[in-house]
Amino acid sequence: MIYLNYAALCPTNPDVDREVQRTLAEFGQYLYSDVGIEWYRDKIHACRQTVGNLLRVSDPSSIAFTSNATTAHALALSSLKWEPGDTVLTTTHENPSIAGRLHALEREGVHVHAVRPISPDQFLHEVQERLNDHGVKAIVMSHVSHVDGRIFPIHAVASLARTARCPVMIDGAQAVGHLPVDVETLDVDVYFFSGHKWCEGPLGTGAMVVRERFFTRPDFRAIQEERRGHPPAAQFELGTHNVGLIAGLAKACELRRQKGIDTERLMGIREEVKETLGRTQRCRLMEWAGPHAPGILTFKGTFDMDHGQFAKRLASERGIIVKPFVDYPVNDAPAIRLSWLPTLNLPHLQQGLSTIVQRLES
Questions:
Q1: Global pTM value
Q2: What percent of the chain has pLDDT over 90?
Q3: Among 27, 61, 74, 167, which residue carries the largest CB count within 10 Å?
């Protein structure tokens, strides 16, 4: 199999799997005895610190653990009091699970306005125009587009939103582990990500950073009562969590911080992909004038090409796994996304790209 869909799911790092099992075995000696509860709390606190180190978060108590990015987003969204006539500002490049939760608010009379990102300047201009309407309750968007890897100007968006006193919630699922992320410099209110993508962490893990100012908003409503001895962000941690998986996520973040992000290698692969696809006139690369994440490249085939069937045939006939976008995002689909890790086998990549070009031209 030639796997070119790492933006959807990365294989779990073997060291992470071992950390999950080691942690569960150790916890199993105590369970929910007094000693076990203290051990559990100490472990969760240490994991908050480790994840915070990767995200450059100075206050680890602002970190809550969730089962994935979608859950984190739903919890953050539900903690605001929505009124008919409120507006959520987002983009046309959001993950369907995020977009679906946003559009569920429409049943409560909330307007969802999705900006199509054509260029950074155009995007910021439209965000500013919408904020001037004074009806925007929150901005919810990605740090990196899962569609084609374009990097959004999050700090600039946060600066505009701050003037309008509008909270900003950022989906970092395609950024954390893929790009250097400094949440405090971005200056957003909520930042969340999942562990199973670029961090090579376990499935069923995620985390969210919630700034203190989010809790003091007049429209904030607590998900559950704040518990004594627990940080405010912990109110988003509903029920009993799998401490093994949380330790695995922390280990993945620690490994990513120690090894660093091989941006040069990722970008070198991206340039090779661009060069190979550029040899055919049967496709067009999806790019904008702004920066792009180095591990993703997306292209559109000819107008009469069935992108969904194209991806299925690559998988069934040649074992090449890619991501098709068939009916979304509006105006940018259909398309095919390729994504990779820096450890990708180059001969396999070249073989896969040659096959893709051949199929495009056939």
A1: 0.96
A2: 92
A3: 167
